[in-house]
Amino acid sequence: MADASIEGSKQPYHEAEDKKPKEAERIVARCIDSSRALAREALSAVVRELRGRDHEVAGCGLLLASGRALPEDVHAILASHALIHAAEGEMHRDALRRASEQLSLRVTGVRERDVLARTAEVTGRPAAELQRRVAEMGRSLGPPWRQDEKLATLAAWVALAVKA
Predict the structure, then answer these.
(1) pLDDT above 70 coverage of the chain, percent
(2) ∠ Cα 126 135 88 (to 5°)
(3) Where are the domains of the chain?
(4) Helix, strand, or coil here: 110?
(5) Of 151, 42, 28, which is closest to residue 91 (Cα–Cα)?
(6) Angle between helices 115-123 and 127-141 (to 10 degrees)
């Protein structure tokens, strides 16, 4: 969800950190707009491909941050390096959420720290079994199968179970 032709698009808040206020706002806004468009384009392509293979797209499982809400003011975010990191993560989640909604996909958000317990709750499966099954999926799919992929799989299970 980053356009390589836009400087700083991977980490726009980092790019804007030492800039003058108006330039910082412009950088962040441009990158947010670009990320939203790219997310919509990519998700639309995935949905078309899946539907073309006769799969029903049930919705979108989205891992949510566990922290507090961010300030709305860009400059308040830029004043704290921790908030800069949080804002970049939230920017990507927002882009996926908006893309899903534009495609009329139901978004099921789950806080990252709660995802295993929530998956166990909605599937009726013990957490240990879910962890074992996620690990088995990684072995059969091959790398990369890091924590991000494992957590995303659990969030997807929540989205599927909630739809059922």
Answers:
(1) 99
(2) 95
(3) 1-105, 113-164
(4) strand
(5) 28
(6) 100
Q: What average pLDDT does the chain have?
A: 93
User: Which residues, listed in sequence order, are joined to residue 107 by a DSSP beta bridge?
Assistant: 60
DSSP type of residue 5: T
| Contact indicator for 145, 151 with CB cutoff of 8 Å | no
pLDDT at 162: 85
CA distance linking residue 84 with residue 90, whole number of Å: 10
Q: How many residues does the chain have?
A: 164
**Strand, coil or helix: what is 26?**
helix
Residue 18: count other Cβ atoms within 10 Å of its Cβ: 9
Secondary structure (3-state) at 56: coil
Residue the block writes with tokens 């706002």: 25
Rounded to whole angstroms, the Cα distance separating 158 from 113 reads: 14
Would you state the structure tokens that stand for residue 19, as one six-digit string?
Answer: 């800039």
- Please answer whether residues 161 and 108 qualify as being in contact, where contact means their C-beta atoms are separated by less than 8 angstroms: no
pLDDT in tens, 68-83: 889 989 999 999 999 9
What letter would DSSP give residue 124? T
- Whole-angstrom CA distances from 51 to 32, 56, 158, 164 are 28, 6, 21, 19
Look up residue 94 and give its two tokens.
């927002």
